[in-house]
Amino acid sequence: MEDRVPPMNAAGDHLGEGSGWWLESKSKGGLGLEATFNSWAQVLYLHMWMLTVRLRCFPKEYVRSWEQNLLDHFFYAAEDRMATWHGMSARGVRNKNLKDLWLQWRGCQLSYDEALAKESDIVMASAIWRNVFKANENVDVADLATVTAYTMRELQRLGNMTDAEISEGKVNFGEPRSITEILSKQSPAFRQHFTADELKAPELSGQP
């Protein structure tokens, strides 16, 4: 039986089928990412990074092995997808792509770490825009805000879990839809008028 070549998008990525908020169409309340290998990898990178941040809080002698096990599971899954769904039967081709994935992971990790170190939502949003949204200049800002807020919320939730809960695999990431609902609500402050005092220009010290 002749292998069927998966359809491709304009960038040459294989298009597949997927489910869940990240891949559901925006008309159905989802994020609307294309169901490609790259989308799968980038969404996983983001969640792997959040887990890695929490794993760094483990006793020092255990951190490296936990991080390596997490990374190994990702690459096992990635290679399986390459062979099963993308027709990469040659090990040499898969190895080349795995090296590319490793470089992508390191880039994602560094960009997200920078945002965490600077405690900056803006830097985090910039990193998510480059990685998850592939630096798309036409990205919906509301979508970018949702993923950024979701990431910060999940980091906090992971930080509140005990080491035992993490090591026993009791990690369940939250539902991004709830973030969308919160961000879509207009603050009552938007309906309030500025007072005369609020409209005054601030006085600068040292003015004559």
Automatic annotation (TrEMBL):
Q: Which GO terms describe its biological process?
A: mitochondrial respiratory chain complex III assembly
Gene Ontology, cellular component aspect: mitochondrion
All residue ranges annotated as the Ubiquinol-cytochrome c chaperone domain in the record: 31-172
InterPro entries reported for this sequence: Ubiq_cyt_c_chap, Ubiqinol_cyt_c_chaperone_CPB3
Q: Which family does it belong to?
A: Belongs to the CBP3 family.
**Protein name per its UniProtKB record:** Ubiquinol-cytochrome c chaperone domain-containing protein
